[in-house]
């Protein structure tokens, strides 16, 4: 018997996330940037003074990946590195004035992407989706380990 996966929550989450990334990539490319560069600029704008390691953890990439992104952003005058006052080995990231206009463009594209992705979904359903996804994230981040979940479910 063939299984219908069109209502499988995990597959739908995967597909929607992938398709959203593809659309965000396309929009970033239209402005000569990458989605990763947009994410880095947004994170530095939201939390100025993060270290490159902290940013790598947030973006779920290796520190060398962030270092290369930051190198490009520094070269383009968008981000600057400042030495940490307590530990000169750590670089703290801050936006340069040139980044502010670009952030407005990124926010416009985020708003447009949000409207595109959520078209036809009433605000109350969006709020329910956000609450459900936040709970899923909490469940996953509080789990001891993925293997523990597997063993608990099968017991």
What distance separates the N and C termini? 27 Å
Using the alpha-carbon principal axes, give the shape.
globular
CATH H-level homologous superfamily name of the largest domain: Winged helix-like DNA-binding domain superfamily/Winged helix DNA-binding domain
- Order of strands in the sheet with the most strands? 1-3-2
The pLDDT mean sits at 90
* Share in β-strands: 5-15%
Name the descriptors:
155 residues; mainly alpha; Arc Repressor Mutant, subunit A; 2 domains; three-stranded antiparallel beta sheet; 7 helices; 3 strands; globular
Topology, please?
Layout: H1 9-29, H2 35-46, E1 50-51, H3 52-59, H4 63-75, E2 79-83, E3 91-95, H5 98-117, H6 123-142, H7 146-154
Antiparallel strand pairs: 1-3, 2-3
Helix pairs in contact: 1-5, 3-4
What does this structure look like?
This protein is mostly helical and 155 residues long. The chain has two domains: 9-119, Orthogonal Bundle (Arc Repressor Mutant, subunit A); 122-155. The chain has helices spanning 9-29, 35-46, 52-59, 63-75, 98-117, 123-142, 146-154; strands at residues 50-51, 79-83, 91-95. A three-stranded antiparallel β-sheet has the order 1-3-2. The protein starts with 8 loop residues before the first helix and ends with a helix.
Task: Please summarize what this structure is.
By secondary structure, the protein is mostly helical. The chain has helices at residues 9-29, 35-46, 52-59, 63-75, 98-117, 123-142, 146-154, and strands at residues 50-51, 79-83, 91-95.
